[in-house]
Amino acid sequence: MSAEATSPDLREEARALGLTDSEYDLIAQKIGRPPNGLELAVFSLMWSEHCAYKHSKKLLRRLPVEGPHLLMGPGENAGAVDVGDGLAIAFKVESHNHPSAVEPFQGAATGVGGIMRDIFAVGARPIAVLDSLRFGELDSSRSRYLLDGAVSGIGHYGNSIGVATVGGEVYFEGPYEQNCLVNAMCLGIAPQERLTRSAAAGLGNHLVLMGARTGRDGIGGASVLASAEFGDDDADKRPTVQIGDPFEEKKVMEACLELLDRELLASLQDLGAAGLSSSSSEMASGGKVGLDIDVAKVPLREADMEPFEIMVSESQERMLAVVEPERLAEVEAVCERWEVRCTVIGSVTDTRHLRVFSGDELVGDMPVDALVDDCPLYDLAPEEPAEQIYPAPKRTLEPSEDLAENLLALLGSSNIASRRPLFEQYDCMVQSRTVRRPEAADAAVLQLAHDTGGGSTAIAVSIDGNGRRVACDPYWGTVEAVLECASNLACVGAEPLGLTNCLNFGNPERPHIAWQLSQSVDGMTAALNELGVPVVGGNVSLYNQSGDGPIYPTPVVGMVGLIPEAERAAAIGLGFREEGHVIAMCGTPQPSLAGSELAKLRGEPLPTALPQADFAAVMQAQDAVRDAVRAGDLASAHDIAEGGFLVAIAECCLAGGIGAKLEFPDSADASYADLEPYLFGEAVGGFIVSGTREAIERLAQRVPTDVFGAVGGQMLELATGERTARVSTAQLRSASAALASVFA
Amino acid sequence: MLACEQQGEAEILWHGDRDLKGADAIVVPGGFSYGDYLRVGAIAQFSPVMDAVAEFARDGGPVLGICNGFQVLCEAGLLPGALLPNTELRFLCRQVDVEVVNADTPFTSSCGQGQVLSIPVKHTTGRYYAPDDTLAELEANGQIVFRYAEGWNPNGSARDIAGVSNQAGNVVGLMPHPEHAVDPLTGSADGALLFASAAARAVAA
Lengths: 744, 205
What we know:
Oligomer: heterodimer
CATH topology of chain B: Rossmann fold
Radius of gyration of chain A: 26 Å
Order of helices and strands of chain B: HEHEHEEEEHEEEH
CATH architecture of the domain at 194-372 in chain A: Alpha-Beta Complex
Strand order of the largest sheet of chain A: 8-10-7-11-9-12-13
CATH class of chain B: Alpha Beta
Helix content of chain B: 10-25%
Strand content of chain B: 15-25%
Distance between the termini of chain A: 55 Å
């Protein structure tokens, strides 16, 4: 197989690899001849949705990518924001949905490993992981299997590599039954001057491959070529799910961070999707150079691998670096100390071509621009559906006017019940930064004292996204997700600095999905512009659908915020704290039952619109809560979200281990139907706070704040005129523990 | 590292070296040595540094093993018993109450006898096991240093044992992580007592 020889027409193979005929012709035109098998394999990956964002790139340009705290934006392995004291926090969320649906343990584990490599590739030490998971309903054994495997896999990788899993979210909904979602977010910390870009530079510099040997794992679609060239019987050699090795990654990570610290690398890039193909071409593209790679030099797990397999393998725990020749010996010494493999596999050239050799033989020759920049970008053809495209959820709760019954049903429902059985499987404290652990507050809080040399600052992080709400209304559902993430940060006194997103959608070539995607991006853009928060980077996962239809549109957003004084954040949580403290709701949310968890339990059809958030009012409430927390005024703060007001109150009781007595004198005459949206309806922008009467009065001067009762006892009691409800905290706890049985 | 630095000078020892750099006390920390892909601690016991640690321990030097470090010390034969998979067979991360059963070791001398410490556990393989006659000997010799307080045993450990010592009392291992309980900001400072004990002993010596 020589690049120079006239290749046979591989149009059939190109189609099987997901390229259209016109894309194939364009590739041939860019190369100046038909591509050979290796080139086709590389192009098919580089021009895939995953690498080229060909159906989403135009939309993503709408998102704001500038902000006062931004140090590094989209386009690098991860974005980064300034947290003061000369430090940067790099962060990014990425999906590993399809591998996790095939093999949940390894799929989720390598998702965590992959996102960590993105973080240390920019020179930041990974300090925290969060995950965002979606599965089908828990009455399905497949969903329970996927959940168990994914949670174990996340723990396996994060726990053993020594990075704390500090937060996350999980929802169970029918449309994820076949196509689960596993999104992992990682944060890393670095001195700002150590932030590293991936652009290759310096003619004659070495291209160095570090870490694990290359095997046949992760060779997905390209096996079509294998079948065509080597006979069908070989296809079974090529498993498509990668296997994670956190111990190898720990060594690679320590070696890379030491190499960057000692300024021994010109650039660094991780090997993720599309392996060597995408990492090398992106490095070359960024540096406007060419690269020569000799695949015969790549350390292999299996000796008989074909050049194209080496180029597309997605074996984990590998990094690619550019090293100046005079630094090579030092680089090798560092790698040897960490027992990390380190091999020169090529060099930087001025050809602007990615040339692949196998020993002396040239086996592929592709213009870098064609690989990285010339993939055609497609316009979507969005079309709003005339009616809701998702079926109504299955009814699991009969309508009732019994407040206690509805409250306990909600607390025990899979989307609201305590996540403790999951997060206890993760090490949330390793590295000693975690000030606020899962379910202690609305956002995780990490102190930076060890990094700043005794400084007082902390960061907060939250990850959010409610697919069913977005399915009801892609624009306002996405607005809600962004605002809720910022509300979670406000509850621990944090000001948002930047956001990362993972857009999980169905097939964008279908007009209704295109409409969801486009509406969602517009909603996210609007909310971010209002908040003044930029996107620092992210990921798009499309084609999440099965024979049963598309997943709920699921934009997942992760936000990082700054807290001036860690001690203030350590003193605040979502739980009520002290007998006699006043309970109040601040903000002016307009809750409705449409699209709520209660409506879901009752099997009501999804609406086609959600109430529109009042940006100014939501931000006013966030600002007031944030300032009150920073001033040390409040005892507790909790954002009202899934399940509405009463569920939020119950969560405050559970977290604090104390009861509450609520009275609603104004609604004494209200009918149950009038009361229900208020107690169980959902909307963004409301907070449950508690504190001394004076503190609540101070808050009321900033933002509309209604006092509802007081903390105390071991009962949650509620009275509106004649209507009363009494539930013990033990009953609340027992209902909320529903997920424990899933892991028993 | 942080927990040791709070009490005195701390140095990281490299697994491949035999030099203990003149340390007064050694902490074999937690972590998943060699990925725990084989039996936990089974490979790390053969690290060159462990030869020096074993010699240091035989000479009466104070050695503390935490979590994976406890497992390594058991594998190396420096502590009695073994750690088996948790009864739930899952990784578990939880703040637990741990009772100081023997306050007369180099790592508990600053604690009160019977004092209850709030310290996290986080492990998959933390169920302490030893044959009944060994357990009886441990009890008789005062080698049970830490117990999970009543109702807090997270992993099915025999007799609620959270940590033990060798017969001489200078080598101590425990599954809970005192080094993650040295700062009220992160939940508890009770664990600092173990490191303070070792530091006080070094100063006195």
